[in-house]
Amino acid sequence: ISNQLTLTSLDVVLTEKCTLKCVDCSNLMQYYKNPINSEHESLVHNLKLFMDTVDYVHELRLIGGEPLIYRKIDEIISLLLEYKNLGKILIFTNGTIVPRSNVLKLCTDQRVHFYISNYGASLSKNVSNLVDALSKARISYLNERVTTWQDCAIIGKMERSPRETFEVFSNCCVKDTLTLLHGKIFGCPFSAHADRLEAIPEFEDD
Question: Is the entire prediction scored with pTM above 0.85?
Answer without folding.
Answer: yes
